Amino acid sequence: MTAPTPEGLHPLLQQLFTRHGFTEVRADNFDAFAGQRGHTLLLFTEDPHRYKETLDLAVIVPEIARAFAGRFAVGVLLPAAAREHQPRYGFRRWPAFVLLKDGAYVGAIDGLRDWGEYGAEVTRLLAAEPSRPPAIGIAVAAAGAGPGACH
Q1: 3-state secondary structure (DSSP) of residue 34
Q2: Which of 83, 132, 85, 86 shows the shortest CA–CA distance to 107?
């Protein structure tokens, strides 16, 4: 299910496809990839010039996939696709990955963590049942409420 990748992609991102065989997830295949049976891990990348941690996660995710061999399919959303689909899952820091089960949200790990945290968190997520993704916080004020009102 892998697809050709864009030219000019950073070598560490390129090897996610060429060396590790992960699938590039775009608008035209997102629903099919994310909705497949079993667990799916979606890696949300960002521009590595703006978010250097993207390159760290490009090295860490293949190690996670190896540590949990056969437990999930891995899809990579390059920056444009990642930005388009991020609101659906509500994580707050870049880069991130989201774990799905049968297409339903299980959880997300955003930003960088210690290796032990990744192992424990992925283990927990693989055992968890799907839930509603967190909403992106939007301030709401009651009509006529002044600044600082909490209604």
Answers
A1: helix
A2: 132
Contact 100, 38 (CB under 8 A): no
Please give the single-letter amino acid code of residue 78.
Answer: L
How many residues appear in the chain?
A: 151
Position 144 pLDDT exceeds 90: no
Strands 96-101 and 39-44, how do they pair? antiparallel
State both tokens at 29.
């295949």
Pick from 76, 46, 82, 47: nearest CA to 64 = 76
Ranges of each domain in the chain: 11-127
Q: What does pTM read for this prediction? A: 0.85
Q: How confident is the model over 117-126, as a mean pLDDT?
A: 97
Task: Report residue 112's pLDDT band, with 50, 70 and 90 as the boundaries.
Answer: very high
Residues 33, 92: Cα–Cα separation, whole Å:
23
Those residues whose C-beta lies under 8 Å from the C-beta of residue 46, and which sit 6 or more positions away, are 54, 79, 82, 83, 94, 95
CATH architecture of 11-127: 3-Layer(aba) Sandwich (3.40)
Q: CA-based diameter of the chain, in Å?
A: 58
